[in-house]
Amino acid sequence: MCPMHSDAIATEHAARLAAVDSLLPGSTPFEAAENAVVLEVATGDSAASGLASRVQVDRDAPNAPWRALTEHRLDLQLAGPRPAGALDALLTRWDEHLRAVAEHGDTETAAIVPRASRDAAGAREMLHHGFAPLRVVAVRPAQRMIPATPLGTPGVKIRRAEPGDLETAVALGMELHSYDAQYGTVNWRTGVEDILAKDLAEQLNRPEPPLWIAELYGRPLGMVSVQHPGETGWISDRVAAARVGYLSWLAVAEAARSSGVGTALATHAHHVLDEEGADVVLLHHAAANPLSTPFWYAQGYRPLWTYWQRRPAVR
């Protein structure tokens, strides 16, 4: 029996995280639900609570290229002076649960633990349990003044995309997807191109597509896509901000890398979202990607959440 009540764990966890990152949202006690159970452990004067859930998607679902088909997720709250020890005990308890519910050795299953990026407690214990920091949700506060290539980059023209750009957008999307697949954040499966083409076609057929094309001396070699405040309910609860924008895509053809195209596209997207009153902009990137990680942080982003993953969920 955990000696610390779940309300107290949630309150202390929220206070601890608020001390390291003011953009993190608060915490409320976990509640069991369909496909979700609450796990609690105590280690001396410390305690941990975790919400263990499972999400399954079809292979041809719109979000399938970006995730394992079955994800086992552990959201956690840590309290007490020794949170790392409590986390270690909670991960052990979760492993027992996974061995009973997950397919052993199935590479289409993943165990995922989202953690506040600035919460260093327990990082070693995560590694000992076979997890690696795979994906980051990064945040950029609005109208942040960052030295960057200006909108008038020589040779670069940015225009709103239109339906006739579908072939270009799909080719850029597939090049980006292929590159990111090396780092385990996306999946290279049969049918990925069809899923991307359908999603991009839907964007391009909107009255004002939220997608822009960058031409370098007349050649379409880059694109950026955003989700406006009001469209980001699926992720807005991950940050303490009222109006949240999301940068969905930024792809630059290999031939145009280091030309200023990427910076011009990012600057344009930020200008659009700042004009719409976004308090922050969020995006996902692969933690190990040697191109995107330094690029995004040069644009004013910083890590907010780090998603640790083990795949398969149970070896």
Automatic annotation (TrEMBL):
Q: Name one GO molecular function term.
A: acyltransferase activity, transferring groups other than amino-acyl groups
Out of the domains of life, which is the source? Bacteria
Residue span(s) of domain N-acetyltransferase: 156-315
Which segment of the chain is annotated as a signal peptide?
Answer: none
For whether the record's keyword set contains Cell cycle, the answer is no
Instruction: Report the InterPro entries cross-referenced here.
Output: Acyl_CoA_acyltransferase, Bact_Acetyltransf, GNAT_dom
Question: A Pfam family for this UniProt protein?
Answer: Acetyltransf_1
Q: Which UniProt keywords apply?
A: Acyltransferase, Transferase
Keyword presence, Cell membrane? no
Q: What is this protein called?
A: GNAT family N-acetyltransferase
Q: Which organism is it from?
A: Amycolatopsis eburnea
Show the taxonomic lineage. Bacteria, Bacillati, Actinomycetota, Actinomycetes, Pseudonocardiales
